[in-house]
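Milestone M4 deliverable, item 7.
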Amino acid sequence: MTLEPEQQELWRTTVVKHALSHPFLLREVLALAALHMATCRPEKQDFYTTRATELQNDALTKFHEVEVTDESNCIAVLLFSSLLGVHFMADRSRTRGIGFSEYLDHMLGCIGLLRSVMKLVLVEWTPFFWASELKPLMSSWSPRPPFDNIPVECRDLDEMIKGLDLGPSSIAAYNTAIDRLFWLMAMAEVPSVSHSTARWVAGWPVQLPDEYIMFLNQRRPEALIILAYYGVVLHFYREAWAIGDTGERLIRAVDTQVGSYWRRWLAWPLQLIGSASPSAGSASRGQSS
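Output delivered:
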């Protein structure tokens, strides 16, 4: 999850301690471990993937039995929600052989899960987390705007929004999504640094405004273009076992969903994954591998 020693120690000790007290978290930790084993031992991939799914289903059942979030369980709820979102993104069995449109549905579902962290605990319990043993996770360096190290190609997103006939609330939603995307790029030092852990990948979804999520679900082209740039960030996490080719597949999925007018804003993401934009033929509507 991270290469920082203090945070590694937190995942090794604090998370395990809370997992032993909260069955839903314990089962999700074991589920994610089984999914990792499916990657490490491909000859037993089916066995570990099945076990991961069983453990995750059991974790969800246990979680739904939680009647209230309070000081006794809010840390476990936060950790569970975070791991659950990563699990869904990492589970290749859910997306094997599906088409680009279905893959986009899958990724929107992952984003929805990660955003649930904000709704469940972050808004209400953030001061508590700052004073708790999770402080190392909460107190990491955070860049502030203006984000000077953002790739120049990303500035095109601002121009894209300025050129649209939108109301103030829509513009505000898109600007927030873009600003938080630039924040994540600054945090992850994209494209200067590649990552082998899943650190920061949830940083964008948990900060997205509801209106932008609505636009994504409506498959609005401008919303999908912004999502493709999140795919760029994920592409620089491709060395992390839980991420892999997620970024590339997301960029390709968006490319098949937007018309030719919008593809000028996909030139850079497609260049990064070594692909030209496909023509609007059957090949672009096929499987996402």
